Amino acid sequence: MQLLIYSHFFLPSIGGVETVVLALASGLSERRSGNESAIFAVTLVTQTPAGDYPDELLPFRIIRQPTSSHLRRLIREADVIHVAGAAMAPIVYGLIAGKPIVVEHHGFHHICPTGQLLQEPQNVPCPGHFMAGHHSSCLRCSPHPDRIKSLRLWLLTFVRRFLLRRVEVNIAPTSWLATQLQLPRSVTVHHGLLASPPLIKTSGPSSTPVVAFIGRLVTTKGIRLLLEACKILKQEKRSFELLIIGDGPERASLERLVREWGLTSRVQFLGRVSQSQIPRVLEKAAFVVVPSLGGEVFGMVVAENMLYGIPVLASDLGSFVEVLGDAGLTFKTGDPFDLARQMARLVDDTSLLERFRTSARQRMLASFPMSRMIDGHAEIYRRLASK
């Protein structure tokens, strides 16, 4: 089967979409029939330039930055088209060519003009203005000061939904997202995790509990909210240390905030840490906090830390709740007081931490294996190709 996967972003760019698409394309390329011939001939198309990335080492063909005519030709040659994300051009070309199209949703661009489902500038979860038909409120929360750009994003959301009603399958990585999208022919295929890494052995109870944050330093990840919770814990005279792993455009302003709030001795910015070094850093942590305000369709950082056996405290976004199950703890999204209260609860209850260390890893291994993700996609492609 000739399978074309279109992902606007791909390696060497780093992000959740890139990680999932790489795993999917690689896993499908390795599938063999009874006579050892490849079941899927995968071509991945992306707009991301290669830079120094060695494309020749990938187990599938990759086409970077094709012209419109080249993209149309690739689509005509394919049996099934898989579009990762909100790109409209491959959907339009595929519909014109009469090809079966699968769209996997990695964001909220089809129900929210900004793609974040976040109400700005208040930085609180959006109540769903677009889907409720409250379009004046929807336009007002656009981050673009240029009203023309805001109007364009709003109009494009209608166009995207028009197109998505005409594709063969809409894949959501969580059942929660599928209910939010309200699109026909929707199915849930959870993201999968690669072969389980070693269980991280933490250093155990300490007089100064260590809490970790891992992610980009941007508004949607909620790092300011976490600092507000730390400020509350400091006022309560609680002992703790926060390790911030990651970098981003807001680092300077966050470091300034740490100084202003007198948290310098308690908060450490580690910057970017390589994936191979993450386990060593997390050995110090009692638990990881994921305080995202929006923009999360699955929660890979939640799943990856659970797989390490690290207890997770996350905001109660629908996707996080689905991934965590009963193997982690949540707090009310955007509420620093509830976050501080739940952090204190984990620090005080070591037996709860120990239970989460065991149950979190078991849940990931049982519910989110990579093989299940590949099988789910393969079955959809086979069904469409047989038509």
Which labels suit this protein?
387 residues; alpha/beta; Rossmann fold; 2 domains; seven-stranded parallel beta sheet; six-stranded parallel beta sheet; globular
Which structural category fits the helices and strands? alpha/beta
Under CATH, the topology of the largest domain can be stated as: Rossmann fold
CATH C-level class of the largest domain is Alpha Beta
Major β-sheet profile? 7 strands, parallel
Helix content: 40-55%
Strand fraction: 15-25%
**Overall radius of gyration:** 22 Å
Would you give an account of this structure?
With 387 residues, the chain is α/β, with parallel strands linked by helices. The chain folds into two domains: 2-192 and 369-386, 3-Layer(aba) Sandwich (Rossmann fold), CATH 3.40.50; 210-367, 3-Layer(aba) Sandwich (Rossmann fold). It is 41% helix and 16% strand. The protein has 15 helices and 15 strands. The strands form three sheets. It has a seven-stranded parallel β-sheet with strand order 3-2-1-4-5-8-9, sandwiched between helices. A six-stranded parallel β-sheet has the order 12-11-10-13-14-15, sandwiched between helices. Helix 2 (68-77) packs across helix 3 and helix 8 crosses helix 13. The protein starts with a strand and ends with a helix. The model has no long low-confidence stretch (mean pLDDT 93).
